[in-house]
Specification:
Helix content: 40-55%
Distance between the termini: 47 Å
Number of domains: 4
Low-confidence stretches: 1-30
Mean pLDDT: 81
Order of helices and strands: HEEEEEEEEHHHHHHHHHHEEEHEHEHHEE
């Protein structure tokens, strides 16, 4: 990535001071102040300013120590991730009203520009299904136009040159990820293994020239995600679902990423998502040994330890909370209403493509083994404002399960928080006393009988 002379100067300073030549008392960081006028009084503002780790919660003011060229800070405002740009020693005022942000300060124009770019990203997500139903040529043209629209926003006069440079890097990463993932999602949405992509698709310059050690782009989580995609691609079809998969993924990171800071973040990302998905003790111990060896960052280690501790709370034998749900007529239903039967909870949402793929397998299992003493609860994690859409969708499939909806949506539903549900579909097996048998059991496509969901 090309940097301005000012950015390069800051970066050289950082390398010099962090290399041990400077006095230990000198810290090459600056303090930025963010003043929030939060009109949503019941909502928190979470500060993410340690390379992706949640570090604080504020209601009105955040003072953040930043490193050279680490000018984008991440906040969760009203449960929505926002990236905000400032430079060293500046104060930025941010007014929060609903989902809208307004800015006052030196970098008002830059942040207004970046919010427009994020809105274009949002529109891409809203068209995800239809875009991946396009041919490769149509998809390339469409997403290319979106990227050019973003970059056109950066041609506004008097935007900070470091903002422009960093934002171009962010836009290119977003485009890189879209193109890298196209064959996978196109085959899914087009229901075909034969997609009209060029031969040797992943040998194209956009992919072959990727820099795995860019300390500047490392401030963006999407950069870490793209590293993961590159490492995962040759492993997925061969090893996914096996005990070798995650260890080989971790070794792939070690092979491709040499810069200590970039490597620490990438290893952390890999391990975090492994634990989020399963927390298999044997694998976790193996990966933790490697992680500890190559990551000297204590904050990252503490973050992983905290996540492992949460999984202990939903281990086999623990009693599940008595969650409350809504049925299709908005009547309240409790989990305890189903005590006396083994319970299989399947979580899903109307917007979830993989969930749609798993549902026919589950329907067939229920039909073939309906004499088993197993109650299937199909629990939607749709947002509250999508209740009618969920009701209409679930009524088409109401015979194979009890259809319920967890209030507050995917991120904030109590069942999602308690069972650490970060991706769906996710299936949870409970016994007749609501004791946890398996907090993350197999998918319907991976079993031949209903009772196999309850195997460890």
């Amino acid at each position: 990535m090309q940097l301005t002379l000012k950015v390069q100067f800051f970066l050289m300073l950082f390398v010099f001071f962090s290399g041990g030549c400077a006095s230990p008392k000198k810290q090459n960081t600056w303090q930025n102040t963010y003043l929030f006028e939060n009109q949503n009084k019941e909502k928190e503002i979470s500060v993410i300013h340690y390379d992706g780790l949640l570090t604080d919660t504020v209601f009105s003011k955040a003072q953040i120590q930043i490193q050279p060229n680490h000018y984008f800070q991440v906040f969760y405002i009203n449960d929505k991730k926002r990236m905000i740009f400032t430079k060293p020693s500046d104060t930025l005022k941010v007014k929060v009203s609903g989902q809208a942000l307004t800015f006052e300060g030196r970098y008002k124009k830059e942040n207004e520009c970046f919010q427009k770019i994020l809105e274009l990203d949002k529109s891409y997500g809203e068209q995800f299904d239809s875009l991946h139903s396009l041919t490769y040529s149509e998809f390339t043209n469409t997403v290319g136009q979106i990227e050019e629209t973003k970059k056109a926003l950066l041609k506004t006069d008097s935007l900070d040159e470091d903002f422009v440079s960093l934002t171009k890097g962010y836009i290119d990463l977003y485009y890189h990820r879209k193109m890298f993932q196209y064959p996978y999602y196109a085959s899914y949405y087009q229901d075909s293994l034969s997609i009209d992509t060029p031969l040797n698709y992943y040998q194209q310059p956009i992919f072959k020239g990727f820099d795995f050690n860019d300390t500047v782009l490392n401030q963006f989580d999407i950069y870490t995600n793209v590293i993961y995609l590159h490492v995962d691609k040759p492993l997925y079809n061969i090893y996914y679902g096996t005990k070798d998969y995650l260890e080989k993924s971790q070794n792939g990171i070690l092979d491709k990423v040499s810069h200590p800071k970039v490597r620490a973040k990438s290893l952390h990302h890999n391990l975090y998502y492994h634990i989020s998905a399963s927390a298999d003790k044997e694998l976790t111990d193996t990966l933790m040994q490697s992680f500890t060896l190559y990551c000297e960052d204590q904050k990252r280690k503490d973050h992983i330890d905290a996540l492992l501790s949460k999984w202990k709370g939903i281990a086999q034998g623990q009693i599940s909370p008595d969650f409350s749900f809504l049925d299709q007529d908005s009547n309240r239903v409790s989990l305890s209403d189903f005590k006396g039967q083994n319970i299989l909870i399947g979580t899903w949402a109307t917007w979830c493509g993989p969930c749609k793929k798993q549902r026919p397998y589950l329907e067939k299992l229920v039909e073939d083994y309906k004499d088993k003493n197993i109650q299937v609860l199909y629990v939607s994690l749709d947002q509250d404002n999508a209740h009618n859409l969920w009701k209409k969708t679930s009524e088409k499939y109401k015979d194979f399960a009890v259809h319920l909806r967890a209030e507050s949506g995917f991120k904030n539903a109590q069942i999602a928080k308690h069972f650490l549900i970060y991706s769906i579909p996710r299936f949870i097996a409970l016994d007749h006393d609501l004791r946890i048998v398996n907090p993350n059991t197999k998918l319907p496509s991976q079993v031949d009988a209903l009772d196999q969901f309850f195997e460890l």
